Amino acid sequence: MTQSAVEIHAYSRAEKRHTWSEMWGMIFKTLWRNKKSRVGLIILGIFILVAITGPLLAPYSIADTNFATSAAPSARHWLGTTQAGQDVLSQLIVGTGDSVITAFGVGFIATLLAIILGISSGYAAGWLDDILSFITNVFLVLPGLPLLIVLASYAPGKGIGLIILIVGFTSWPWGARVLRSQVATLRSRDFILAAKLAGDSAPRILVREVLPNMLSLVIASFLSSSLYGLLTAVGLEFLGLGDPNAVSWGSMLYWAQNAGALMNGQWAWILAPGLCIACFGMSLVFINFGFDELSNPRLRGDYE
Amino acid sequence: MRYFLRRTLFLLGTLWVAITLNFLIPRLMPGNPASVMIAKFMGRGQQINPQSLHAIEVMLGISHASLLSQYWQYLGQVVHFNFGLSYTQFPYSVTYVIAQALPWTLGLVGLSTVLSFIIGTSLGILAAWRRNKMTDSVVTSISAFTNAFPYFWFALAAVYFLSYLHNWFPLTGAYEIGSTPTFSGAFILDVIRHGILPALTIVISSMGGWLLGMRNNMINTLGEDYVLLASAKGLKSHWIASMYVARNAILPNITGFAMALGFVVAGSLLTEVVFAYPGIGYAMYNAVINEDFPLMQGIFLIIVLCVIVANFVADLLYVLIDPRVRRGGES
Fold first, then answer.
1. pTM of the entire structure?
2. Is A302 at the interface with chain B, CB within 8 A?
3. Would you list the DSSP string of B102-119?
4. pLDDT band (50, 70, 90) for residue B47
5. How deeply is B174 buried, as exposed, middle or buried, from its count of CB atoms within 10 A (0-12, 13-18, 19+)?
6. Which of A142, A238, A285 sits opposite B144 (nearest CB)?
7. Per-residue pLDDT, A5
8. Are the beta carbons of B120 and B327 closer than 8 angstroms?
9. Residue B196 and residue B192: Cα distance in Å, rounded?
10. Sign of dihedral through CA atoms A163, A168, A169, A174?
11. CB distance from A289 to chain B under 8 Å?
């Protein structure tokens, strides 16, 4: 390394620039300090715990169909039973697993695509940026649910993996657009220039310099795509385009609706999965409030 | 002018992508919709006579020509809004079915979207103005909740409590079963009576987005120097809020509103399924359930068309209401 390159590297260290571990610590601290996002983190933690330990927590096995059918809530079955004689509470608890996996699976695929397309589009500029931006905008405009319905009804077979894939592959554009504009502003910063002059390759700069500095945006877009993914997957399952044999919050709603649960007075069967979805989603929205305030100090107000 | 040209190109490009996707998806996926249909026509396990099979294929417009020539033919049909015949509502054409359903959707969801925008934006202004007070945290928490629950679940609960338990509203449909749509006063009242609950559920569930967006824009604008100057001049605070801050903060919301009007047709799906409302969304749902592929794809294209045109209008509107965009070219 030449003398000047060393100097440039030293300069880039001194400038405000964050490494991976610094960023994670900072994000968690800020989120925990914010009242709303702390509540969000706690609720999310509980859901993840239930998702992992689900089958152990459930009072009955979900395969057990020996109970009275379509029973109203009682002491033995807190949320009643299904038309096939399964315990609704057990389904709810075990179904948490698949639902959380669906949410985060979609979030992961969508965010990964958003990172790849958004960052290369923002960093490259020129014709590559034009093409990628065009693709992003097109998919941003195409209405999600109808497109998914068309895809899902032609797709071979039905399953949670398939749902995650098609929802994930159609929900990246928002994230890509947000990340692209952030990279576009980072691109001209001094520490990026320094790394460029030091001869670092583009992928190395993107991973080591750019990504850590927009980690909060990446996580925020992961959380919103997860919420969007869960709601969309639940909608598809409710319409009967999911796997009817899988146990998840969405398929519970599908069966409850098909069995006319509300008209039989089995309100708990429909209310419970919806409330779980709403609470899970709300925890993500609350955590994102924290991120909004992290990236936009004006929203922070004086004291929360 | 250059801006206008770019937006027009984008409009046409998006339309082309949507039409091509619509063409490719069924052809690239394994399984043949024609065979599904024929199995349904013939009944399971029966031998299909090749001649009758061919007759059905011709009737339903299924061709064995090369992909490219099919594509050309398809493009020509789409330009003339010819989407073929519906499988389930045979012998009606897809265009006819869509034309029957569209007014219901535009009336119900369109009106609800306008209401939701007005109420949500006003509450957003209020929340930003009373930032860090009770009103703000109550209003934002509620809208975070309404943003996070699945719409159809909320609608189901509303039907159960308000229509089933209390009989305040009709359970389903757009009008009393058996009556024929006319422009008589009694029929219009009946339609309004059936529309209140679905409209209410749409407004409540979509208001949150407008509210949060407007609140954040307001708070950003409140930090601008000219707002500080205005309060230093001693102007009344509600005057500043409405004439200085809200006027500028509402810009993104207005373009969002133009977009939302395009999504009216797309967003109607779950509402109409829950309420069995005879609009576009319900028609698409029935098409999916009954594997009526031409109808499903025709509706998909109409939905896409609405969204794209609304997006185009939103872009043009932005130039009209925000001079900064006009000067800076594409922002």
1. 0.79
2. yes
3. HHHHHHHHHHHHHHHHHH
4. low
5. buried
6. A285
7. 47
8. no
9. 6
10. positive
11. yes
